[in-house]
Amino acid sequence: LLIGVSGAPLEKNISLASPTKVELTCKLDENSKLKNPQVTWKRGSETISHTSKTPNSWTIQLTISESSQLGSYSCILKGEKEVSATFHLQVPKIEGREKPIVTYNGDAAVMVCETEYNPKAWTWYMTNGTELVPINKVLHTDKFQIKRQSASVNHLKILKLTKEDRGVYWCEAIFELGSSKGRFELKVLSITAPLKPFLAVVAEVAILTTIIILHELYSKRKEK
Description:
Elements lengths: L1 E2 L6 E6 L4 E9 L9 E6 L2 E3 L3 E3 L2 E8 L6 E8 L3 E9 L10 E4 L4 E6 L6 E8 L2 E4 L9 E7 L2 E6 L8 E9 L2 E12 L6 H28 L1
Parallel strand pairs: 1-3, 2-9, 10-17
Antiparallel strand pairs: 3-7, 4-5, 4-8, 6-7, 8-9, 11-15, 12-13, 12-16, 14-15, 16-17
């Protein structure tokens, strides 16, 4: 990471799916007014030493072999002021769907999970209260269909939807260094649900019409 003239804190996410060697470098912009800074590398709050340095850059070399070595690594430069840059080493993320999936009774719903790296395995879960129940282990081909479209893309298809199928579903991608989950919310509506606003308006019009007719009948009787 290049620490610029502004000195604003920098952050970078680095995705790691399997054990590997990583080299992290902080480089000070040549136009920076921060001269001959005191440099400290930290993993979380733990101070670690840099592997190599030049007049304007400092490097650490890491061998990431297990999930406990993931996390945040920061270089902190102190002089007349303090500036920093942070590298976040993490398992590849799965982006969940922000908006609920809305469908109707009897229809089917498809959920798609995708990662930038190829996981070793996939697992789909449905939520039962606070517990996650693996769909893979209770798989019913007439209800759930799981398909690995490619090495990095996995689909869950739910057939013959009922109101009991609504809720939160999760997909989990399993890597050598850990796993990531993506969240999906499913809403199942009755076929008449879209008609409810229309029916409500019709009911209001019918009530209003009835009141007008009764008022006219009452007025005519009063006149007689």
